[in-house]
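Form 12-C: Joint structure prediction
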Amino acid sequence: MVRAGVVVTGTEVLTGRVADRNGPWLADQLRQAGVDIADIVVVGDRPDDLRDALAFLSGVQLIITSGGLGPTADDLTAVTVGDFQGRPSALDPDLEQRIADIVERLMAGRGWKTDPEATAAAVRKQAFVPTGASVLAPVGTAPGLVVPPAEGRAGPPVLVLPGPPRELQGMWAAALADPIVGEALAGRAELRQRTMRIWGVPESELSAALRRHDDDLDGLEVTTCMTDAELEIVTRYAPDAEQAYDRLGDALVGEFGAALYSRDGRTVDRVVADALLERSLTIATTESCTAGLLAGRLTDLPGSSAYVLGGLVTYSNLAKHELAGVPMELIDRVGAVSEEVAEAMAAGARWRLGTDVGVGITGVAGPDGGTAEKPVGLVHLCVVAPGRTLSRRINVPGSRRDVRLRTVAVAMHMIRSVLTE
Amino acid sequence: MVRAGVVVTGTEVLTGRVADRNGPWLADQLRQAGVDIADIVVVGDRPDDLRDALAFLSGVQLIITSGGLGPTADDLTAVTVGDFQGRPSALDPDLEQRIADIVERLMAGRGWKTDPEATAAAVRKQAFVPTGASVLAPVGTAPGLVVPPAEGRAGPPVLVLPGPPRELQGMWAAALADPIVGEALAGRAELRQRTMRIWGVPESELSAALRRHDDDLDGLEVTTCMTDAELEIVTRYAPDAEQAYDRLGDALVGEFGAALYSRDGRTVDRVVADALLERSLTIATTESCTAGLLAGRLTDLPGSSAYVLGGLVTYSNLAKHELAGVPMELIDRVGAVSEEVAEAMAAGARWRLGTDVGVGITGVAGPDGGTAEKPVGLVHLCVVAPGRTLSRRINVPGSRRDVRLRTVAVAMHMIRSVLTE
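Section 2 - Result
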């Protein structure tokens, strides 16, 4: 098995001020390319710690670093990797000119005033690279680097990539095409990777089902995880295990029925979008506690303007009445957080936007505003479609954020259920 | 300096299917408690890799693991840590009973049907813990553990915490209060940590400014990072460097003026909320390409119902007209993505919701729908407040997601600017 290790650098990542999106992205790309990931190590902007991490990972075939290529003094990755590989750094004048051209265009585009001296120092810093390293063309301002060990030294090459995800991802194809990287990863066997998704079933039930079908798992590497009350089953296998994978799929459909809502890896977002497109239906929302997050999610996918016409965010009771046409008398009688008001909000979305499907959401997101009868976390949802109405009441534990995000997930699955089951 | 290392376990984290929220959270908590973080190591559900990571970190004073305490067979952290510390695992019958009670309540609350045998196996698995470890009471179903090295062994104790962030965070106070953890972290010196925020200035300018004021930085540990086109400056210092920190703040205000919009660490979200509350103003939105994400963000903070009355998501042109009152003639003449329509949308939000402040956003989120004249990433924003109108046109590079999120950030800063500058 060919293995790689990833080092994510940056005190801002280590201390949680910026979430690392690179480690997981790289891991996913590598796995799909048939390379196993050993570890992702996050270190701060301290050369000693980076050096220790490189040494820790030196048993793998390729080390990839992300971050620490920026213009500031605490961006130390290039020089530290060079020293680790026995390649002292020097200024690359061609690279300096290329970066200077990029920076000039960038600053002009943003209309930022800059101090020429500070800019020149920043450019020079980014063009100071280990001798003998291959340079990958910058996507932003920082170049990538492939740094093999110096003549006579052992250990894997280090692929040095920039921290901003857009830049790192934009450089990935060039990195894989680099001959030294290619040689390091020689012998990798591309694997198929397939995903199934289950909604509303505890992980322990899935574990028990997988144990019951242990015989079907030969040649399959199955991993499961639960996110957003949803179970994701990711399976990797060599092409000759395709039939085993099909048998596993059949077995799980037998176990979980319609709860296994995606056998082809489509997310609930994609399933909902496809169902709306296939049946030429339009959709609109009226949201209170989620306040636009469901509309925002329904429009995440490109092309959503074909079926999302709009939505209403009715945070106040008056807005529920005036925008969505919920009778004030109803709100006074049963309260804004109630099954009746959720249904009137769903109907109001259909009516106001002239759509086929309407969704209404009203709840107590907290942390304040809860009562004994209507505690924080209580949410009423309703989906109205031609000939069908589906209402649900949920109690979500956790923070305001948890309540809002879980509610949006439940709403997506209710829409899916109404449209496809 | 007292140092800790964090091991995040889980193939789903390593492969990017679940984002790690625990490593950064723990790092932040530890730093505020005066403990330095050496590394965060992410490993898959493989005992060998976990063991290697524990060995790599064994020079620190405390190792913390997160994840791998669940009910499934690939949750191996407790047993692996026990073996590493020379403490074989055994069933803890009291713990088994406590977990069984919790699981029973949980399943009843969710209304899930469960197989009693699968449930019992899951409970037993979670009560199988290293001998001599201290048990931290479960927040979800999994207990935390403090596992010191066995008699006669060297190395730091390992604090074993569950993977779900809510459970891990809920257990943190109890973990810090554990005597073995307390002893490991003895000698830590609590530091002050303060944050300043700057909007619309490149990182190289900040670096240059910090170099100019190098004399003011004595005793201060300054880290900077750029997220969402915003610069965050986090400084840690011992209490006796308070005056040096004040001088740094004065110097940066002198350099950047109003661009340094937060000297007290408040986020733009908080600054906007405070400005609305102080002046008793209300706000509403009309969103096209962001489709509810701005309304969703304005309502992230508790108490936002005091000033957010609602919003309109006008994805279709007809919705822009019928909901926000944008004249069809205007849309036909200048196009839906235009300064004029953004302003009419902002005015429409104020009018329709009866608020003091209105925000209008219309743009091309992509990846399709762009033209030479109105390319993907072009967005017009407008904020209308009593006596003040602010319009901006931006061109955002990157993906649909990048365009939408950056637009929401720009809108937040435009609202802040209108209300506070």
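Section 3 - Comments
Chain B touches chain A through 108 residues (CB under 8 Å). Chain B has three domains: 3-184, 192-265, 269-420.
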